[in-house]
Amino acid sequence: xxxxxxxxxxxxxxxxxxxxxxxxxxxxxxxxxxxxxxxxxxxxxxxxxxxxxxxxxxxxxxxxxxxxxxxxxxxxxxxxxxxxxxxxxxxxxxxxxxxxxxxxxxxxxxxxxxxxxxxxxxxxxxxxxxxxxxxxxxxxxxxxxxxxxxxxxxxxxxxxxxxxxxxxxxxxxxxxxxxxxxxxxxxxxxxxxxxxxxxxxxxxxxxxxxxxxxxxxxxx
Length: 220
Prior knowledge:
The protein is mainly α. It is 77% helix and 0% strand. The protein starts with 7 loop residues before the first helix and ends in an 11-residue tail after the last helix.
C-alpha cells in the first residue's frame, strides 16, 4: 500500500492540499489580470501570450504550463511529480472558472480602489496558494522545474537564474501586450515573502494530516 508519503491517505491528503493551493493561486493570477495595474512576470507573459493567440487568459496559462511540462519531460524528467501534473493541467482551467465570478463581484469597470484591492489580494493569494501547493512536497510547477534545471545546467544559484527568467518574462510580456506596471513589481518582490512563511507553517501540518508525523520538515 506504499510507505511514507506514498500511502493512500498521504497521497489523497496531499493532492487535496495541492488542488486547494492551485485554486487560490488561480484567483491570484486572475486578480492581477483583472486589476490591469500590472501582473507578476509569469502572469504578465501569459496575458501577452493570450493576446497573441487570441485566447482567454486561462487557456493561455494551460498552453504555457503544458509547454514547460513537455520541455522538462524531455530534459529534466526527475523534476516531474504528482503535483507538477496537477498544477500543469488544472491552473489555467481554474483561472477560466473563476474569471466570471470575480467579474460579477467587481463589475465590468472596477474603480481604482477596487483594482488596488485586486492587486493586494492577488499578491496574498499567489503567496498563500503557492505556499499551500508546495507544502504538499509533491513536486513544483513546470516552469519552476525548468528554472531548477537551468540553474543546475548553468551552475548558477537559483535566485540569480530566477531574476534572469523574470526579466525574460517581462520583456516577453511587453512585446506581446501583457500589462507591465506597478503590480509587476509588487508581484516580483512581495509574493515570495508571503509564500515562505505559509510553506514553512503548512508543511508540518500536511505531514500530520497525511499520517506522516515522523517526517521532519526542514524550513526553507
